[in-house]
Amino acid sequence: MPIVVTDIQRADPEVADSLARFGVATVHEAQGRTGLMHQRLRPVWRGAAISGTAVTCTLPPGDNWMIHVAVEQCRPGDILVAAPIAEAHSGYFGDLLATSLQARGVRGLIIDAGCRDVDDLERLGFPVWSRSICAHGTVKETLGDVNVPVSCGETLVRPGDVIVADTDGVVVVPRGTAAATAAAAQARIDKEERSRARYQAGELGLDVNAMRDRLADKGLTYITQADWEAQQ
Amino acid sequence: MPIVVTDIQRADPEVADSLARFGVATVHEAQGRTGLMHQRLRPVWRGAAISGTAVTCTLPPGDNWMIHVAVEQCRPGDILVAAPIAEAHSGYFGDLLATSLQARGVRGLIIDAGCRDVDDLERLGFPVWSRSICAHGTVKETLGDVNVPVSCGETLVRPGDVIVADTDGVVVVPRGTAAATAAAAQARIDKEERSRARYQAGELGLDVNAMRDRLADKGLTYITQADWEAQQ
Amino acid sequence: MPIVVTDIQRADPEVADSLARFGVATVHEAQGRTGLMHQRLRPVWRGAAISGTAVTCTLPPGDNWMIHVAVEQCRPGDILVAAPIAEAHSGYFGDLLATSLQARGVRGLIIDAGCRDVDDLERLGFPVWSRSICAHGTVKETLGDVNVPVSCGETLVRPGDVIVADTDGVVVVPRGTAAATAAAAQARIDKEERSRARYQAGELGLDVNAMRDRLADKGLTYITQADWEAQQ
Amino acid sequence: MPIVVTDIQRADPEVADSLARFGVATVHEAQGRTGLMHQRLRPVWRGAAISGTAVTCTLPPGDNWMIHVAVEQCRPGDILVAAPIAEAHSGYFGDLLATSLQARGVRGLIIDAGCRDVDDLERLGFPVWSRSICAHGTVKETLGDVNVPVSCGETLVRPGDVIVADTDGVVVVPRGTAAATAAAAQARIDKEERSRARYQAGELGLDVNAMRDRLADKGLTYITQADWEAQQ
Amino acid sequence: MPIVVTDIQRADPEVADSLARFGVATVHEAQGRTGLMHQRLRPVWRGAAISGTAVTCTLPPGDNWMIHVAVEQCRPGDILVAAPIAEAHSGYFGDLLATSLQARGVRGLIIDAGCRDVDDLERLGFPVWSRSICAHGTVKETLGDVNVPVSCGETLVRPGDVIVADTDGVVVVPRGTAAATAAAAQARIDKEERSRARYQAGELGLDVNAMRDRLADKGLTYITQADWEAQQ
Amino acid sequence: MPIVVTDIQRADPEVADSLARFGVATVHEAQGRTGLMHQRLRPVWRGAAISGTAVTCTLPPGDNWMIHVAVEQCRPGDILVAAPIAEAHSGYFGDLLATSLQARGVRGLIIDAGCRDVDDLERLGFPVWSRSICAHGTVKETLGDVNVPVSCGETLVRPGDVIVADTDGVVVVPRGTAAATAAAAQARIDKEERSRARYQAGELGLDVNAMRDRLADKGLTYITQADWEAQQ
Q1: Residue B49: how many CB atoms within 10 A of its CB?
Q2: Residue F146 near residue F6 (C-beta atoms within 8 A)
Q3: CA distance B12 to B53
Q4: Mean pLDDT of the residues in chain C
Q5: pLDDT computed for residue C210 by the predictor
Q6: CB-based contact (8 Å) between F232 and chain D?
Q7: C128-133 and C108-115: which strand pairing?
């Protein structure tokens, strides 16, 4: 039975807001390399970097009705996560729905299907990560669910989880671990800053990360070109 | 027997010119959601939006000879539609052919195969929608046809039809219905303008489109998170 | 046994440097249409055009350890060519490794797998051609080889070969024929310049390339629309 | 923190067993067209049709360690569902693991990644639905989870849910609704049986399903070839 | 306006029937290497080889209503060609529709989308060439056309054309040239029979086809391994 | 300059012959998980398992001329490896060329492109591993090379290397290490035989491979469903 869950519990908005600045790659590392959506989800225009709390919906093939239903469940600071239940490339989303979401303070859309009006979306400054850019329209005939756990981009998303999206892709941070992930991300940024200075100074990763002994233990051998050719 | 049809009947140029400003998504809707090419056809540089009358040609695998033949059949206001007869990613088209088409007043190229010299094409301002960007050159050994009906982008194109192309993709408007489609597109734009104002004002699609009763009839149910969890 | 070849012979740096300005399409033509990598290798940011000498490494699935090893073998003017031994989309490479390669004077990376931190890479001005953009991190557990011949982008690359990469893709020029290829590329550019002037003046490829007789010999027939319809 | 949930609640085994005979397409219809995995999951050998209760695990890229951990959690009547957390085609599973699962009474494997030893699997009669057939081996370095909700085949699977798999694909039936789905599937089979007799007797779907009025209402028009051509 | 053309002109049934025995590859060659559908159309079960006259229909995304309409237009000896107007993988066709088509003497289905109940189809002996095997059901809400020219498998098909399908794929033979194609196919078979005997006797293609001089003219050079290595 | 190397050095035929019985997965493991071709190379008919020495050739797009040239370089016990220099799906190979290769004692074909006449190939018992099954014919206009190192299936193959191919895919064994690989494969088979007995007896991989301590060290935690739910 198709349902709309109306009062989902969202991640702490302050934590949700803070994750955008770390970026997708760092957040993904900070939570143990989990929660990354499939790389086929790409920004329809380049440059946006957002984070926010997930409102989810499922989409029947070629049917965008549930996006309209989901809009009503969105609040400022949310990101809508639209998960088709079968591979689909139709244009489920365009500038009118973007206008509506923007009017509600929604920060962006993640949709594992098609999107259209992409020039308008860029003009509006409304960011979308999608699987396809496709103008083919959708019908409004079949119900789905809003604010239930979904599989989007081959990853599990629960309503209220934090979504982080930038040019590198989209990552999901479970509501319950968002604060710990933010802390781990900050620690990682700090550590990378120190490494970056060493790399800029010309130090090698082999030394920055003390890899030489372990490489030798595993059997890595350095030989000359002449010796290599003699072995062929 | 390979042929070139020399005196095709084109859509009314005024109508053909007028369709660009509606955009691909609106034109596609205005003609009943038909005629859209496959979403794999993407602009090789971003920003162009054109419409014009189709000159068509077929392409044997890895052979671009018929593009040269087709150029001669083009007039100002045309768009060349190049349809390979087998999946192919070679670079059938580059800056020299673009120079030649531009010199004849051709507005762009739609090719369901590869294209190269894309930086030059952007500098020239010659827009191309292609399946691939690939530098692999082609031979000139096998004939095809010019100005016959073709399947391009998984869609039927007849010579003289109107092509509309922008960042959302490529749509084909049959010559005979182009004027009616233009009128329907204008009506759709007007209607969307009214809806847009309501969305901007914060109204929901559920109300703008009067969807609530029909959703309830289909059985959509609103429940609380607590009730949902109790059901799991 | 995993090995690192330490003293590879590189193509003449002057020749290697000179190839960038011809561009990928022309270089590929100039060497008889060989050596082009698969079109799935795309620039992660648009606008760079480079050439340089190849340092190669192989990558086990989801493991970027050998990139660290390969960095040490790089010199100014090199381009790193990273070849996974199985299809992989993880983000093997990001801004720290780019910083390290830049510090060594390396001009870019060709990787037939995933890359991340692409906004940072654009800010750094470090160009990468990759198969995917993906934030998923990699481990450092399994060895591969550095500076052996590899298959990258479905093309054979030997250490020391010249790599040319731009918006059209990536082409490999064997070390031994790089000088001859540069000469042939220059000749081709000169010839195209002459053709371009004729195309700009409105001449047709059919005449610029003297194709009409051969087309007729092969049986190409020009007919009117009316005659064509009568045949259907 | 990687975890193994040890005492999952499984769907009623009698219900789970009963679903195989309805087949994937009917079960999918019976539960409102939800829960179907992506069509890229194909049987590695053809002919098996199974149902059973899901034990789930996640798989890091190129790492099959958690399959070994998951085996211990399996009981007779289970089906193992292995969900990679990134696109991967390595051969995570072969004849030794199949032998182990068979020894525990497990009915099959669903894996959204690669599988190998497929001739052996057919000889053993152990069915596998996978994304790829690929011999590339995996490492055992990184942990994942066992018996948590996963996204497999772009669909949400909870441990203890029922899996139904045959030549048409793989469908997931939530534990809580499995009995109702079985009843609905039986009703659908009965209804289809009656329709089948009418189709065999030459009746048309237009009449069996009383579609003619609705088609006319929507505007479907029957015309002759001559009239159609006159309109072109 | 959606239409059904009711009295299409079919190719000569005797000619249409005769083409199956030549096979797809030979027919495709016999008509100058045109008309082949994309290789993604594969038989859902292996072994069938058919030819017959095309009844065509278009399919909106995820909507199989027009298949029901098209069935009524089919006669014994026909093959139904179902062309989606957007990429779609749903299961538009299953055993009930196959039963209905079989009852009317239809020989098979070509569908550039998904198909389900494939085990039943094999039991029925009803052959289908499809893009996907997918159980996801379709709705009946949107109209399309029956017996108009369509683009299916990236190829133009007109109602009444001949379809030939076997393990190698699907080829379309225009109604007007079917007899000539049959004659050319027979000639090709005869010629291949003579070549086959020579190949079986150990003659080389280089000699059977007198290729040596032309290869030498193009510059093919035979060298020893030692000489080749000296050049590297 | 296109060349044919005429006197390549082949791997020891006895060793080359012996590898087929180990199978692709075992050989691939035995040589350190290298040399596996991409999983897109699939047998066009199922059941064959071969090994032999590689004769290589490159293929221009849509051009199979070099296969004819390569046939002459083949001897009994060889396997022809045909490597296109650009992605291509045409049917480069069919029953006549198979007849010719069989007459010379060649054991099979590996082609990273299209193949046709697959029913005939199965009747002949001539095994082919290909990327596509496609009837589209090829021309004979452009030269390539025979018996040079090639990139096929995204893997480097040198003439004279051993090829092993079965239902799991295709692996390349360098000529110089073939004997060592055969020995390692035998050792692996022996070890797996002992493990298999233990798995059949119901022992777990966790114990057969002594994994429990290392899992615990890495932090794997076993918890109850109740505890897990309390954490959510």
Answers
A1: 18
A2: no
A3: 9
A4: 97
A5: 95
A6: no
A7: parallel
Q: Which of residues 148-167 of F touch D (CB under 8 A)?
A: 166-167
Per DSSP, the three-state class of B173 is: strand
Q: How confident is the model at residue F232 (pLDDT cuts 50, 70, 90)?
A: confident
pLDDT in the model for residue B231: 83
Q: For the beta carbon of residue A196, count every other beta carbon within 10 angstroms.
A: 15
Domains and CATH numbers, chain C: 20-185 (3.50.30.40)
* In contact, D143 and D74? CB cutoff 8 Å: no
With beta carbons under 8 A apart, name residues in chain C contacting B71: 204-206
Identify the residue whose tokens are 């072994």: E47
In this prediction, the residues of chain B whose per-residue pLDDT falls under 50 are none
Chain C residues with CB under 8 Å of D142 CB are 139
- In this complex, is the C-beta atom of A232 within 8 Å of any C-beta atom belonging to chain F? yes
pTM score? 0.97
Give me D177's structure tokens. Answer: 């609704």
Work out the pLDDT band at E133, boundaries 50, 70, 90.
Answer: very high
Residues in CB range of F75: below 8 A, 6 or more apart: F10, F104, F105
CA angle B131/B132/B134 to nearest 5° reads: 150
**Stretch F175-198: mean pLDDT:** 96
Whether pLDDT at A122 is above 90: yes
Residue of A nearest to D40 (CA): A87
Q: Which residues of F touch B60 (CB under 8 A)?
A: 62
CA distance E48 to chain C (A): 31
DSSP string, D90-106: SB---HHHHHHHHHTT-
Strand partners for E114: E91, E132
CA distance E74 to E101: 8
Distance from CA of F166 to the nearest CA of C (A): 18
d(CA A177, CA A171): 13
Angle, CA D79 vertex, CA D74 and CA D83 arms, to 5°? 95
Give the model confidence (pLDDT) of F98-139 as tens digits: 999 999 999 999 999 999 999 999 999 999 999 999 999 999
Please determine, for residue D231, whether its predicted confidence score (pLDDT) is greater than 90.
no
Residues contacting residue A78 through CB under 8 Å, at least 6 positions apart? A10, A52, A53, A54, A55, A104, A105, A106, A107
Residue E159, SS3 per DSSP: coil
* DSSP string over D65-98: HHHHHHHHH--TTEEEEEEESS---SB---HHHH
With 90 as the cut, is the pLDDT of residue D158 above it? yes
If we measure between CA atoms, which residue out of A118, A149, A159, A129 comes closest to residue A37?
A: A129
> Cβ–Cβ of F204/D71 closer than 8 Å?
yes
Q: Which residues of C73-96 are buried (b: 16+ CB within 10 A; e: fewer)?
A: bbeebbbbbbbbbbbbbbbbbbbb
Task: Assign E152 to helix, strand or coil.
Answer: strand
pLDDT at A231: 83
Contact D37, D155 (CB under 8 A): yes
Q: What is the DSSP letter of C175?
A: G
pLDDT at position C1 over 90 = no
Cβ-contact B98, C25 below 8 angstroms: no
Q: Is D161:D172 a contact under the CB 8 Å cutoff? A: yes
Q: What number of other Cβ atoms are within 10 A of residue A47's Cβ?
A: 11
Q: Tell me how far apart the alpha carbons of residues A175 and A160 are, in angstroms, rounded to a whole number.
A: 6
Size of chain E in residues: 232
Please list, residue by residue across F72-103, b when 16 or more beta carbons sit within 10 angstroms of its beta carbon and e when fewer do. bbbeebbbbbbbbbbbbbbbbbbbbbbbbbbb
Q: Judge whether C147 and C6 are in contact, CB under 8 Å.
A: yes
Cα D116 to Cα C215: distance, rounded to the nearest angstrom: 52
